[in-house]
Amino acid sequence: MEQGPHIGDRITDKSASPNDATVRDWVGPEVFGHWVALQDWIEETYPGVFAPTWLYGGEKHGWSLRYKKSKAFCTFLPEYKLFSVVVVLGAAEREKFEERRKSWRPQLVKLYDEAQTYHDGKWLKVGILSTDDRHDVMGLLSMKRRPSARG
């Protein structure tokens, strides 16, 4: 007897990269609203900087949408009924995070403190289920790369 997907499962059908309809069906309409809002914010804040690329990480990790210029900016993870963003904070970003430590929401500070530090930085996987979660990620991304000047 085959079971349906579980919360947090990734999209693993490697026959084609996901489109908006696939992502919306997988994460759910409310969560998809956060997906689109964060994509729109990145495009408006960093116009023409990133060309998001779908990456297939195999049966275990499934599909992810990576934003990268010369170095990684963030990665969107469409999960069943969830949406997470991975942000890697290098040494300079960790220093900035610590300087602003008291201004971050306690949930984000806890996530930061519990994240393991690797040779390339702290990998934060932030679940986006609310506007506050999305704003946390926007703050991390703005700290990671200064927003483009608008003309």
Keywords:
151 residues; alpha+beta; 6-stranded antiparallel sheet; 40% helix
Helix content: 40-55%
Query: Could you give the order of strands across the largest sheet?
Result: 1-2-3-4-6-5
Beginning-to-end CA distance, first to last residue:
58 Å
Shape: globular
Order of helices and strands: HHEHEEEHHEEH
Low-confidence sequence ranges: none
> Please, how many domains?
1
What does this structure look like?
This protein is α+β, with helices and mostly antiparallel strands and 151 residues long. The chain has one domain. It is built from 6 helices and 6 strands, in the order ααβαβββααββα. A 6-stranded antiparallel sheet has the order 1-2-3-4-6-5. Strand 3 (72-79) and strand 4 form a beta hairpin. Helix 1 crosses helix 2 (29-45). The longest helix is centred in the first third of the chain and has 17 residues, at 29-45. It is globular and about 50 Å long. The model has no long low-confidence stretch (mean pLDDT 94).
Short synopsis of the structure:
The protein is an alpha+beta fold and 151 residues long.
Layout of secondary structure:
Layout: H1 20-27, H2 29-45, E1 53-56, H3 58-61, E2 63-68, E3 72-79, E4 82-89, H4 91-99, H5 106-114, E5 117-118, E6 121-127, H6 131-144
